[in-house]
Design brief:
The structure is a single chain. This protein has three domains: about 220 residues, HUPs (Rossmann fold, 3-Layer(aba) Sandwich); about 90 residues, Tyrosyl-Transfer RNA Synthetase (Orthogonal Bundle), CATH 1.10.240.10; about 80 residues, RNA-binding S4 domain (Structural Genomics Hypothetical 15.5 Kd Protein In mrcA-pckA Intergenic Region, Chain A, Roll). The N and C termini lie far apart (about 55 Å). Strand 14 and strand 15 form a beta hairpin. A six-stranded mixed sheet has the order 1-6-5-2-3-4, sandwiched between helices. A five-stranded mixed sheet has the order 9-15-14-11-12. A two-stranded antiparallel ribbon has the order 7-8. By secondary structure, the protein is α/β, with parallel strands linked by helices.
């Protein structure tokens, strides 16, 4: 069996490790328990969390045992990494609700049956901590001077670093120590912005237990155009179907920049690398096939094969003007009475969310980017009425790629 370290490296997951040779030997010689933390700052994770999620799935597929750690305790402090100001502190009720959502969500990717993976919440051991005891037993192993050299802290010194946030590194390091003691966890993984926290945890294990633990970081993914992964004009692309519909999720992937297709196929699908490289050699119109494969496979992993197939069919119907089922397309219901009275196009585009406001919709129409049933709108004040209904629906389009269906009630 191939060493999972080599698999992750070849697919583009690994940016840095605390000891590359030692970690590779470890992963090739025994079943390893590893973990990644997910702070429940929202009720759902978004596409930006897929790299750590996919890495845990790869580890499990290779026979290792992953721990998905919900940060119900650390989120009460707030991670300063990658932030220019302090995160909003959540209430205990908000944290509990978000944590429950993340636990359910992570279960769609990892198999937790028979202890093949563990789903833990660090609130279970962090919240009961005695502060004075924690400072004496754990805090004494940390050098303030060294902590301030960590990028997550150093970058915040100019804008202000809250003392509460300053404790975050200690808590995350303690997580690693706790998991090492209780479960024999030897590897912590995370984004490159977590490097300082991961190293601090491995060092704490060495100081307190005399043990050897390892760290691995992933690159923070940006698109070829330089945009942050998972950000769109409409906001974040969520993994929860209630926040981002499977069709919209599919569309995010199919709209991938040509330069990113091969890289994203390697990172966000489980296709063999030989197949990934074959798709990467396609160009021009043939690259559409690779994008469809990427969109289908990525949607299948998150939303299941049935939703992926439905989104694929809807996309082909909308973009190819083929006959087919459009039910997976994002849909807004409008009262029949309102259409009988007539609705201005800019109002309808804003109401469906294709545009952020009526002003934004007017600009879209004036620039020739608004379509109704495939026909470009030319008049800002054009009225949409019952005559526009085709087979029970009106299909709106903003630009080349964003569709929305309006149905009557």
């Amino acid at each position: 069996m191939n060493n999972i370290y080599d698999i992750l490296k070849e697919r583009g997951f690994i940016e840095g490790t605390t000891d590359e040779d030692g970690l590779r030997d470890l992963l090739g010689s025994k079943k390893v328990i590893c973990y990644i933390g997910f702070d429940p700052t929202a009720a759902s994770l978004h596409i930006g969390s897929l790299i750590p999620i996919m890495s845990l799935v790869h580890m499990q597929r290779a026979g290792h045992r992953p721990i998905a750690l919900v940060g119900g305790g650390t989120v009460l402090v707030g991670d300063p990494s990658g932030k220019t100001e302090m995160r909003k502190l959540l209430t205990l009720e908000e944290v509990a609700e978000n944590a429950a959502g993340l636990k359910k969500q992570l279960s769609t990717y990892l198999d937790f049956s028979g202890d093949k993976a563990l789903l833990l919440n660090n609130a279970d051991w962090l919240v009961p901590l005695n502060y004075i005891e924690f400072l004496r037993d754990i805090g004494r192993h940390f050098s303030v001077n060294r902590m301030l050299t960590a990028e997550s802290y150093r970058a915040r010194l100019e804008t202000g670093l809250n003392f509460v946030e300053f404790n975050y590194m200690l808590l995350q390091a303690y997580d690693f120590l706790h998991l090492y003691r209780e479960y024999g966890c030897l590897l912590q993984m995370g984004g490159s912005d977590q490097w300082g926290n991961i190293v601090a945890g491995a060092d704490l294990i060495r100081r307190v237990e005399g043990g050897v633990a390892y760290g691995m970081t992933f690159p923070l993914i940006t698109t070829a155009s330089g945009d942050k992964m998972g950000k769109t004009a409409q906001g974040a692309v969520w993994l929860d179907s209630a926040l981002t519909a499977p069709y919209d999720y599919y569309q995010y992937w199919i709209n991938t920049d040509d330069r990113d297709v091969e890289r994203f196929l390697a990172l966000f699908t489980f296709l063999p690398l030989e197949e990934v490289k074959r798709y990467g050699r396609l160009s021009g119109a043939d690259l559409r096939e690779a994008k469809e494969v990427l969109a289908f496979e990525a949607t299948k992993i998150t939303h299941g094969e049935a939703e992926a197939a439905k989104a694929h069919e809807t996309s082909r119907t909308a973009f190819g003007n083929e006959g087919g089922d459009l039910e997976a397309m994002p849909t807004t219901a409008v009262e029949k009475r309102r259409l009988e009275e007539g609705i201005t196009a800019y109002e309808l585009f804003a109401a469906t969310g294709l545009c952020t406001s009526r002003g934004d919709a007017k600009r879209l129409i004036s620039q020739g980017g608004a379509y109704v049933n495939g026909k470009r709108l030319h008049d800002i004040d054009e009225v949409i009425a019952e005559r526009h209904v085709r087979e029970g629906a009106i299909i709106l389009r903003a630009g080349k790629k964003r569709y929305h269906r309006v149905v009557l009630t």
